[in-house]
């Protein structure tokens, strides 16, 4: 549950209004300076970015050049996404653009105002199409429930960031943008989790429909909890 100070539960940090200049702000934290980002957070961020982009490029390639036949578990998944290819593309291409924009927004480099102007509408579109994608869940209601919860948290964080930006509160805006980006990148964290399930499927005999939803819950939970604990550990 959000508090007026900006956390999902009770945040300690008072809001600070920072003078804006050209879309960036004096004293606003960046991904590599000022905010004291730990190495594990930076490594995790770029790891998720690379995975997210690779997953989208692979999906676009498969949709453009579908394989004929095939009985592998991934081939079965390809058929599922091909059954609603237009919706899939309408979701994953803007999502990739959002992910690629996120370093520019979080770095707050000079001249990065253009990225922030695209950040909010792109994020809203990605969130809305995620709801639509949840009508075709591979993992049934377990996957759908994960999407409904974490996508709602993503849109809530995006809205709080937008409201802070409208007030000129650059630090509060940055906190909520980091939450939004971390939650969205949870989809990248699900991929290694799915890899473990696929690798052990001969032992567990689990099909994608059985573990897809569990992987979603694990991946999104890792990112959401990690960013929240880190923000709170700063004690601002």
Topology, please?
Elements: E1 20-21, E2 24-25, H1 39-64, H2 73-82, H3 85-107, H4 113-133, H5 140-167, H6 170-184, H7 186-199, H8 201-204, H9 208-233
Antiparallel strand pairs: 1-2
Helix pairs in contact: 1-3, 1-7, 3-4, 3-6, 4-5, 5-6, 5-9, 6-9, 7-9
Task: Give an overview in words.
It is built from nine helices and two strands, in the order ββααααααααα. By secondary structure, it is mainly alpha-helical. A hairpin with a 2-residue loop joins β1 and β2. The chain is 71% helix and 2% strand. The two termini are 19 Å apart. α1 (39-64) crosses α7, α3 (85-107) runs antiparallel to α6 and α5 runs antiparallel to α6 (170-184).
Keywords:
236 residues; mainly alpha; 2 strands; 2% strand; 9 helices; disordered N terminus
Brief sketch in words of this structure:
The protein is mainly α.
Low-confidence stretches: 1-34
Radius of gyration: 18 Å
The description of the largest β-sheet is: 2 strands, antiparallel
Beta-strand residue fraction: under 5%
Termini Cα gap: 19 Å
What is the molecular shape?
globular
- Helix tally equals 9
